[in-house]
Specification:
alpha/beta; transport; 2 iron, 2 sulfur cluster binding; flavoprotein; Elongation Factor Tu (Ef-tu), domain 3; single chain; iron; Ferredoxin
Length: 350
Amino acid sequence: MPNQVTIENSDSYFNVEEDERILDAALRQGIDLPFSCQAGVCGACRGQVSAGEIDYGAIEIFGLLPEEESAGFVLTCSAKITTDIILKMDGNSLYTPPQSYNGQFDTQEVIMTVLSQDSVGDEIYRLTLQNEASFLYQAGQYIDVIVNEEICCPLSIANAPHVHSGVIELHIRKTHTIPSWGNWVLEQAAKKKQLRIRGPKGQVVAKNVNVRPQLLIAGGTGFSQCKALLEQIFLHKAKDSEAAVYLYWGGRHREGLYLHQQVKDWLAEYQYFRYVPVLSQAVGHDRWGGRRGLIHQAVLDDFEVLHGFDVYAVGPMEMVKCAFWGCVAKGLPKAQFYSDFLEFMDFNEK
């Protein structure tokens, strides 16, 4: 049986299913509660419980001080309820972000310690960094690893903030035929055990997870950003949601799908999740019986209409551009296509 949340000093109330978070339940039922990061860190969703019990489970909360928790304050994006509750969402219970916030965390320049560097296949390495508590970000954002005063290497953060708390995960492809700043990052990480980074950056974050179907298109190590987005979606999406989540992941060869088994494990865990891997240059030793071709074309072949979707595309610039125009041709509003390339590319011209 669901429990009920009553908003104090209003006529609003809504039901919360077992294992559903307060904010997700409210948005699902058309109750407009404030929120931003949806990761338990920014405090924008803060309310105060005057009656009833809540539970965070294993989620680590950064957006409340211990004395605030003792006074009944709660982060609705992360809390579940174990009884009916009365929730205050007005006056002093609301978080007022600083003017510089604008829905994003302030950009910082910090030195992070390298924790590990391991190969995950096809010359792709997973690098983990010790994240200081003061460095806050949203799933889908990226950092710049600083090479010198003029050059930075942008890398997507590959884990949502609640996954491996205190750690930032990066996926980097090592190249042999041409020099790359990714190679430089791997060499510096192995040699100095520290990296100077600037961030977070980027506007691509998970939106409308219980309202619209989500379509994520990843080319190669573009999967890293999609991985963080998916982890955030899995955290907040209602388990019985009818809005499906699709991941199309493209690689040249089988080893390019370097976390293929992890994605397959998600298939077994989340009934609304769909996964379509595609190889563009499969050869005999790949033993590949799945889809072949270009990843964006596989998406366009599978969907007649995309009007009601949110689409995220990460990978080589040309792939993202082809995906953008292909999805728009299938009815997707331009405002519902999300990519970091949109920040500096003119997508008004093909």
